[in-house]
Amino acid sequence: NIEILYLLLLLVLILCSRILFLTDIHWDAEYAEGSLVDCKMPLCCRNHSGRASWKHTGAGYWGTYGDCDLPLRTVENLLQNVAKSGPWDWVYWTGDIPAHNVWSQTWAQQLNELVTITRLLHKHLGPNVTVYPAVGNHESTPVNSFPPPFVHGNRSSRWLYDTMAEEWAPWLPKEALETIRRGGFYTCEVERGLRVVSLNMNFCARENYWLMVNSTDPAGQLQWLINILQESENKGEKVHIIGHIPPGLCLSNWSWNYYHIVNRYESTITGQFFGHTHVDEFQMFYDEDTLTRPLSVAFIAPSVTTYVNLNPGYRVYYVDGNYPGSNRMVLDHETFILNLTLANNQPSKPDPNPSWTLLYRASKAYGLSTLFPSDMDALIKVMKNDDRVFQRFWYLFHKGHVSKPCTDTCKTSLICLLHSGRYDLLTQCDVLHGDKHSVRKTMC
User: Fold this and answer.
1) CA–CA separation, 283 vs 415, rounded Å?
2) Omega of the bond leading into 190 within 30 degrees of 0 (cis)
3) Signal peptide location in the record (predicted)?
4) Which end of the chain lies in a sparser environment, N or C, as judged by fewer CB atoms within 10 Å?
5) Residue percentage of the chain with pLDDT more than 70
C-alpha cells in the first residue's frame, strides 16, 4: 500500500507544472548595514537613516525586521538559490521592484532598477526559463501614477512601458510587447491549452488619481480581457490571470465588473495570482446569485522584501500539468523564507551562504488534498471554528515572524477579507460577524 501511494504521489508530481512566483522585491539601492532601523522615517535602514548606536539595533547584512527594504545582495542570493532549486516550468513575477522611498524617486532610478532586476533574472534563471511579468504600482514615479493610454506626451507612462517591452522581449511574443507598450498588459500562450493574461492592475487602483477621469475601464483592459477569455473558451484553453494588486482591493465598480467576468468564465479561468499586500493570504470568489458556491481563488503570495517586519520569501505553485484534459488548477503551494535571525547571526556574524528554507507546504499545513475553490472555502470555515488552525494561518500569514496575536475583531476582519474577492462585498461580512469591516489599506 505504501508503495502504491508513493507511485501515485510520484505520478502526480510528474504531471504537475512547477511554477516559481516572485512578487514585491523592493530593492533599496541605499540600504546600509549598521544603519538605524527605527529612524522615524517612512523607510529606514538606509544611508541617510543615521548610524545605530549601542542602544539601538543596526540594519542586518541580509535584511532587517522593520520599515526596511532589501539590499541587492539578498535579491541576488535568492535568485542564485532558486536557480539551484529548479527546474522551473515557468515563472510568474508580479512587480514592485523599487524601494518605498517614493518621495525621492526619478524616472532614471526607476528604469535602472527595472533593468537591473530583469537582467539578474535572465542571468540566474537562464535562457530556457520563461518569466511572465506584471506591472506593480511602484514601477512608476510618482508612485501609483498610471495615466490611461489616451494620455500622451510627458504625462504618459510610455517611458516605462517602452523599457519594459525592450527588457522583457526575450520572454514574450511580439503581440504581447505591443499591448505592453500601449497599456502595460498582455496575453500569450504558455503551453498548448494554457494561456496567461497579465493585467495592469494600476487601472483599478484606488490610489491612482488618473482614474478620476475614467474609473470603469480606463484602458479598455476589461473589454480586452473578455475578448481573450471568449476566444480561449471557444478553443478550450484554460487561462491563468496574473497581476499585482488583488481585485478585492480595487475600485468598487472595476472590482464588481471583474467579479462578473470571473463568474462568467469560471470554467476557463483556472488560476489567479497576485501580490502587493506583502503577506500570505487569498481572496475567494463565489457565485453572484447566492454568494455561497466557491468558484475561484485569487492566491496572494508573500513578498520578497521584509517591509514591514517580515522575513524575505518566495512562493512555488504546483499546478495540474500539461496533459490532455488537465484543468490547470492549483494543487498545492510552498512558501520559502530566509530566516533573518539565523542569516544575520551565524554564530556572531552574517552567514555567507544563508539557507532559504521551506516554511510550509499548504496541503500538509492545513490537511488539504488540493487547493481548489471548494478546499479553500472549507479552510475558511475551519479557521472560523478552530482557533488553532487560524493561529497557524496567522503565523504563516507573516512568513513566520509574528509580533502579536490575532484575536476577536482582528480574526473576524481577516476571515471576512478572505471571503471578499470583490471590493465592498459586505454581505459576506454581515454573515460572519454582523457588521461592516474596514477595508485594508493597500501598501503605498
Assistant:
1) 10
2) no
3) 1-16
4) N
5) 91
pLDDT(232) > 50: yes
pLDDT surpassing 80 at residue 33: yes
Q: What band does 15 get if pLDDT is binned at 50, 70 and 90?
A: confident
Q: Are strands 131-133 and 330-338 parallel, antiparallel or unpaired?
A: unpaired
Q: How far apart are CA 299 and CA 371, in angstroms?
A: 10
| Cell numbers 496575453: residue | 187
Q: Which of 10-14, 195-199, 304-308 has the lowest mean pLDDT?
A: 10-14
- 283 forms beta bridges with 298
CATH 3.60.21.10 fits 1-31+69-406, yes or no: yes
The Cα 303–Cα 301 span in angstroms is 7
**pLDDT score recorded for residue 435:** 45
Predicted confidence (pLDDT) per residue in 344-354, tens digit? 987 678 999 99
CA distance 23 to 91: 11
